[in-house]
Write a structure and sequence with these properties.
This protein is an alpha+beta fold. The protein has one domain: Nuclear Transport Factor 2, Chain: A (Roll). The protein is built from 4 helices and 6 strands, in the order αααββαββββ. 13% of the residues are buried.
Length: 171
């Protein structure tokens, strides 16, 4: 054998025996860009959840001031908004507002004091989220209507808005 060939075989032997056993191909999850991307996604989800929580807090504050239109600012101002409640489907922002007005601002009606509880915000992607929780009203006569809700929200040009609301009342 010539010396060049022996040197090449020796080099291959050294690589196989000494280098390859400790060599591993990094998985995408272990690569710096992937970690940064995951961190950015988590940061984005956290920011989205905080924005949604602020929207819901603003709604509760408006409700408790008796500002129904301020409460409705959290909803998508569109005829495509859907609101399911009590076996009824309301289509559109205006219809949802009118339903709230009839139910809580009609003659002899009151809005009461609203609280949201047990909120779970699930950010599905940077522009969509699902929120579940409980609503609870305290009325001046001591009654406490309450129930559950599921909201679908979208992040639009002017911020997060509820595009679908499914609310149920407990017996």
């Amino acid at each position: 054998m010539n010396h060049t060939r022996i040197a090449a075989i020796s080099l291959v032997f050294l690589i196989v025996v000494l280098v390859l056993p400790g060599f591993s191909v990094p998985s995408p999850a272990n690569q710096p860009n992937s970690r940064r991307q995951t961190s950015n996604q988590q940061k984005g989800q956290t920011q989205a959840a905080e924005s949604i929580r602020r929207l819901l807090t603003t709604q509760v504050e408006a409700w408790n001031r008796g500002d129904l239109e301020g409460f409705m600012d959290g909803y998508w101002r569109s005829p495509e908004l859907t609101f399911f409640s009590g076996g009824t489907i309301s289509q559109g922002w205006q219809a949802a507002l009118e339903r709230y007005q009839r139910t809580y601002q009609g003659t002899g009606k009151e809005m009461g004091h609203l609280e949201f509880q047990d909120l779970h915000i699930d950010v599905l992607d940077p522009h969509a989220a699902v929120v579940t929780g409980k609503w609870h009203l305290t009325m001046s006569d001591g009654k406490t209507p309450h129930g559950l809700f599921t909201l679908i929200l979208k992040d639009m040009k002017n911020g997060w808005h509820i595009v679908h609301d499914h609310t149920s009342a407990a017996d």
